[in-house]
Amino acid sequence: MIGRIETYVHSDSLTENKGVAIIKVVTTTDFAARTVEFKAFTKEAAMLVFGALSYTRAFIAGPSMWSVVIEKFPDIETKRRALERELGESVTVTEISIMRL
What we know:
This protein is an alpha+beta fold. The chain has one domain: Elongation factor Ts, dimerisation domain (Tetrahydropterin Synthase, Chain A, 2-Layer Sandwich). 42% of the residues lie in helices and 27% in strands. The chain has helices at 30-33, 36-53, 66-72, 75-87; strands at 2-10, 19-27, 92-100. Strands 1-2-3 form a three-stranded antiparallel sheet. Strand 1 (2-10) and strand 2 form a beta hairpin.
C-alpha cells in the first residue's frame, strides 16, 4: 500500500491542550497519494483526529479510534468516500497516534 503520514501540531499560548496527532492514510497507488486532494484530506483528517481524541487518556490510539473521529466530525467520512470515488481507489486511515504535552 502507498499513502501518506500526516501530522497536526496543536501548540498555542491560550490553552493547556498541547500535542500532536499523527495519522497514516493509505491508498492503492502513488499517483493517488500525490494528488492535491489526497494531501488536503490527510491534513484535515489529522487536525480533526487531534480535535476528537486529544482529551482521551490514551497516548496512542489505534485505527479503531477513527470511528470516534467520525462520530464527532461526520463530514470527514463523507469527504473520504467522495475522495475514493474521485480517485477510483480506496482511501483508508490505518494508524492514529496522539501525543500530549
